Amino acid sequence: MTDSNQNLSRRRLAKSAAAATFALASTAALGVSSARAAKPVPKGGGNEAGFLGSNQITASIMRQFRPVGLMQIDMGIVVSAIPQRERAQAATPALRAAWRGVAQEFVNSFFIPGRVPDTQILGQRMQAVTDRVVGNGIARVVLLSVIVR
């Protein structure tokens, strides 16, 4: 086989592999979209009924007045009763502002760079501020992940 024929057969092989991959991906996408249409996803987006997710909360890790890292917190709240859930959704901007303040206070007061953050303290403080903003016993805070970079 000459070089030009070999290159030509490689191109054909690559094109057919790309076409097969595309066909498989489109078939899988059709299957996923029909599965989604058959089973509605709850509006909260979590596994638990009444889960209201939040965007990522961040806090800067400072050392000697210079930023040396970042703490990212993924979290949400669980509110089981529908009228209370609407109240919690309405309070989302105030909650996010309060959570940011708690996250920065936690980083400044309790976090030691290079160590694993104490999520017990963080969760307790987030729950306390949530109770203050939304109402006592209405919402339960769920920490999904705490990442330090």
Number of contiguous helices: 4
Q: How many strand units?
A: 4
Class derived from helix and strand content: alpha+beta
Global mean pLDDT? 78
- Roughly how much helix do the residues carry, as a percent range? 40-55%
Q: Low-confidence stretches at least 5 residues in length (pLDDT < 50)?
A: 20-46
Count of discrete domains: 2
Largest sheet geometry: 4 strands, antiparallel
Which percent band covers the strand fraction?
A: 15-25%
Plain-language structure description:
Helix 3 packs antiparallel against helix 4. Strand 2 (about 55-65) and strand 3 form a beta hairpin. By secondary structure, the chain is of the alpha+beta class. It folds into 2 domains: about 1-40; about 50-149. The radius of gyration is 24 Å and the shape is globular. The termini are far apart. It has helices at about 5-40, 80-90, 90-110, 120-135; strands at about 50-55, 55-65, 65-80, 140-149. Strands 1, 2, 3 and 4 form a 4-stranded antiparallel sheet that branches.
Short recap of the structure:
It is built from 4 helices and 4 strands, in the order H-E-E-E-H-H-H-E. The protein has 149 residues and is α+β, with helices and mostly antiparallel strands.
